[in-house]
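Dear H.,

Thanks for agreeing to be a second pair of eyes. The structure we're designing against is below in token form, covering all 181 positions.
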């Protein structure tokens, strides 16, 4: 389960120091290691996406979901599938094509971040639950210091509207698996 290429991939993080120096990581990621849209074949087993139903433009309650502009995306700025990390780990949330607004604020083209930890299915047609596995960043935060138990965990970002309901279409990152030392 630990091919040699995987070790090589992790090495720059060890050298860079995982607890700090995020700017360094970001530059390095931007320069050479991709923006989180696949293309890391051979590094780690792919993490299947979380299961969701198709997004409805309007919920059965009559609630009209906030529309996400075409091409909008959320992504992990400096984490990718297969990474080995130390806990606590600072996770930076990237957002393209939309803006961040605090929960409760209705503003076109915005939403707030949610981090799903070890979630393999969720409802894109309902408010996201709020618990240890579904973290809300309703103040408009774009990063978190995350404490994880040793072992493997999946992480996924989902943007949601002022009422914590995912957009239409949903704006969510790929789901990744990280190994915590
Ligand atoms: Cu929320």
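And this is the sequence the design step returned. I haven't edited it by hand at all.
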């Amino acid at each position: 389960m630990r091919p040699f290429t995987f070790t090589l991939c992790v090495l720059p993080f060890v050298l860079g120091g995982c607890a700090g120096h995020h700017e360094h990581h970001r530059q390095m990621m931007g320069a050479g290691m991709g923006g989180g849209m696949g293309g890391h074949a051979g590094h780690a087993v792919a993490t299947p996406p979380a299961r969701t139903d198709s997004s409805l433009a309007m919920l059965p309650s009559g609630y009209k979901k906030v529309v996400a502009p075409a091409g909008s995306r959320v992504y992990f700025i400096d984490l990718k599938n297969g990474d080995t990390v130390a806990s606590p780990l600072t996770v930076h949330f990237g957002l393209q094509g939309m803006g961040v607004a605090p929960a409760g604020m209705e503003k076109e083209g915005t939403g707030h971040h949610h981090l799903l930890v070890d979630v393999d299915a969720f409802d894109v047609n309902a408010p996201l639950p709020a618990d240890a596995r579904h973290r809300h960043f309703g103040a408009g935060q774009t990063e978190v210091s995350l404490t994880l138990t040793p072992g493997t965990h999946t992480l996924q970002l989902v943007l949601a509207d002022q009422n914590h309901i995912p957009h239409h279409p949903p704006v969510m990152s790929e789901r990744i698996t990280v190994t915590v030392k």
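Two observations from my side: Confidence is low (pLDDT under 50) at residues 1-42. The chain has one domain: 4-180.

Warmly,
E.
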